[in-house]
Amino acid sequence: MDSLPVHLPNKKLRTDILTLEVVLMQAFADGDQTVLASLIDEECVGFGVFGDLYSRTRLVSDRRCFALSASTLLSLETKLYGEVAVTLSEWNVNLETEGAFIHGPVRISRVWNLRGNCWKLVAFHVSDARLGKKWSAVTKHSG
């Protein structure tokens, strides 16, 4: 994992945020409600790849909303603003969500907030990275 592009001035913070991202994705894959509950803030809200709204309750408890069977971190960039960290990551996933399958790259933006000594996920957005490639092939209308 040392070869991943992680951008933060402080090496310990880089390691902490990288660890959070990997542990969170592994907890989703394992369906580990204890770990998910410890990382996701009570007020967390986010949007899935198809625009579905996810609350903490839905993320932690409702395993029917999506099933992650594999994930590999491809890149991670982190910006730190005081006690807030914003991560932009790309993952290669095998994911089933609401009956649709994604086998390939997704981009995830997450907002983490430092609460005491613990980082908590407070917001996120997931997008299908394959869509960007398709849109780049569309010719723009000039008119």
Account of the 3D structure:
With 143 residues, this protein is an alpha+beta fold. The chain has one domain: Roll (Nuclear Transport Factor 2, Chain: A), CATH 3.10.450.50. The chain has four helices and six strands. A six-stranded mixed sheet has the order 2-1-6-5-4-3. Strand 5 and strand 6 form a beta hairpin. The N terminus and C terminus are likely disordered.
Sum up the structure in keywords.
globular, 143 residues, Nuclear Transport Factor 2, Chain: A, 6-stranded mixed β-sheet, alpha+beta
Please outline what is shown here.
The chain has 143 residues and is of the alpha+beta class. Helix content is 29%, strand content 48%. The chain has one domain (11-130): Nuclear Transport Factor 2, Chain: A.
List the helices and strands and how they pair.
Layout: H1 11-30, H2 33-39, E1 40-47, E2 53-55, H3 56-61, E3 66-81, E4 84-97, E5 100-115, E6 118-128, H4 129-136
Helix pairs in contact: 1-2
* Average pLDDT metric: 83
Question: What share of the residues does DSSP label as strand, in percent?
Answer: over 45%
Strand/helix succession: HHEEHEEEEH
Count helical runs: 4
Low-confidence residue ranges: 1-8, 135-143
Overall geometry comes to globular
Q: What's the main sheet like?
A: 6 strands, mixed
Q: State the share of residues found in helices, binned by percent.
A: 25-40%
What is the correct CATH architecture?
Answer: Roll
How far apart, in Å, are the first and last alpha carbons? 47 Å
Number of domains: 1
Determine the structural class based on helices, strands and strand pairing.
Answer: alpha+beta
Count of strand segments:
6
CATH class: Alpha Beta
